[in-house]
């Protein structure tokens, strides 16, 4: 899992805004990774070298790689996508950091543990149809996905420590999974490991005047994935079991009381919304951009330089203090965004290339 996440984090990518010929083909890689818990690299590699942020709450990486063909008004694509989300709070992140670094929890504090992990990996095909009007166009893409792996885990409860450093816990666990799970339960053909999914994307462009362009892209405006018999665990984890260790101290044995079975699992994906507004003057174009991925918003402002053969756009993420540069010409579209020049400390990263061929 760590290798796969590290690989996908390196794919960080792009989205193209091109006017296609009647027939064209593009190879694309898209990704957006963000964390307000600790740097992305440490989170993905599970190597917590520094204390998490006090406002720790969310992290995600969303990625897709594939090939798309346009024939007249139709589009066809084949791709693989990987989505990974973490939702937590500062107490949970702090307790996890201390435990990962063999540091004692504060014996005077009780940690309110809240953690949700969600990921899915799937291969799919998409079919789209584009409508063109005088100053307006829209494209609807419907995707069918073969679900290869998924996990949705929720852990809520209280964690504390005594003066000897022994950790006590009282938490509720609920978890659907196809492979990896908190309890390390092994699958002996007790549950399915693959399922299916359907997604719908919407892309719209509008030019109300010669110097104004507005675009709206909504990925996963509708999604429905299912695994008819997923692995399922639900119960209570506590440390009611105690024993006297070899040096005479009290030690705790975590106990799980609950069910381990198989159950139908349906889930959807957080939608991703992108809105662009461009205002052109004689010498320059001004750009505002908004992105929402799940519950997290990103706000950008910048300028766009246009020539006969290419377009260069310079944007700035206002909230995360991150610059972004985009470049586009007949054959390639690319963008790069980092909130820290030291990649080991980056909390936001976007990077990639889209290569397209026209016939």
Report on this structure:
Helices cover 7% and strands 64% of the residues. Mean pLDDT is 88; it is low at 1-21. The chain has a 16-stranded antiparallel sheet that branches. The two termini are 40 Å apart. It has helices at 2-9, 40-44, 90-100; strands at residues 23-35, 58-71, 74-87, 110-132, 136-161, 167-177, 195-209, 212-244, 250-267, 272-280, 285-293, 296-306, 310-317, 322-329, 332-338, 348-358. It has one domain (2-358). It is globular. It is mostly beta strands and 359 residues long.
Labels describing this entry:
disordered N terminus, 359 residues
Distance between the termini: 40 Å
Strand content: over 45%
Strand segment count: 16
The domain tally reads 1
What is the strand and helix layout of this fold?
Blueprint: H1 2-9, E1 23-35, H2 40-44, E2 58-71, E3 74-87, H3 90-100, E4 110-132, E5 136-161, E6 167-177, E7 195-209, E8 212-244, E9 250-267, E10 272-280, E11 285-293, E12 296-306, E13 310-317, E14 322-329, E15 332-338, E16 348-358
In short:
With 359 residues, this protein is mainly beta.
């Amino acid at each position: 899992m760590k290798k796969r996440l590290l690989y996908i984090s390196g794919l960080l990518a792009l989205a193209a805004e091109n006017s296609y010929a009647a027939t064209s083909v593009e190879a694309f890689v898209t990704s957006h990774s963000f964390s307000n818990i600790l740097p992305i690299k440490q989170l993905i590699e599970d190597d917590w070298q520094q204390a998490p942020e006090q406002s720790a709450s969310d992290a995600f990486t969303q990625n897709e790689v594939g090939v798309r063909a346009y024939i007249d008004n139709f589009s066809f694509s084949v791709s693989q996508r990987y989505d990974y989300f973490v939702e937590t709070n500062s107490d949970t992140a702090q307790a996890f950091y201390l435990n990962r670094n063999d540091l004692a929890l504060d014996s005077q504090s009780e940690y309110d543990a809240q953690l949700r992990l969600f990921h899915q990996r799937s291969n799919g095909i998409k079919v789209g149809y584009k409508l063109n009007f005088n100053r307006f166009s829209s494209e609807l893409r419907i995707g069918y996905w073969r679900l290869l792996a998924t996990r949705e885990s929720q852990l809520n409860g209280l964690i504390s420590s005594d003066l000897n450093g022994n950790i006590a816990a009282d938490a509720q666990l609920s978890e659907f999974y196809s492979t990896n799970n908190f309890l390390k339960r092994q699958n002996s053909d007790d549950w399915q490991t693959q399922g299916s999914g359907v997604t719908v994307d919407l892309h719209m462009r509008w030019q109300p005047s010669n110097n104004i362009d507005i675009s709206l892209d909504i990925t996963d405006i509708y999604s429905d994935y299912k695994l008819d018999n997923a692995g399922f665990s639900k119960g209570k984890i506590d440390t009611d079991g105690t024993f006297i260790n070899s040096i005479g101290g009290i030690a705790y044995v975590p106990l799980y009381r609950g069910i381990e079975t198989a159950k139908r699992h349906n889930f959807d994906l957080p939608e991703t919304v992108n809105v662009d507004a461009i205002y052109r003057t004689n010498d320059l174009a001004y750009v505002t951009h908004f992105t929402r991925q799940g519950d997290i918003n990103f706000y950008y402002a910048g300028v766009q330089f246009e020539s006969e053969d290419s377009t260069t756009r310079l944007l700035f993420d206002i909230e995360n203090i991150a610059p972004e540069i985009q470049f586009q010409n007949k054959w390639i579209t690319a963008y790069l965004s980092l909130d820290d020049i030291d990649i080991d400390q980056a909390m936001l990263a976007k990077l990639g290339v889209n290569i397209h061929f026209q016939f």
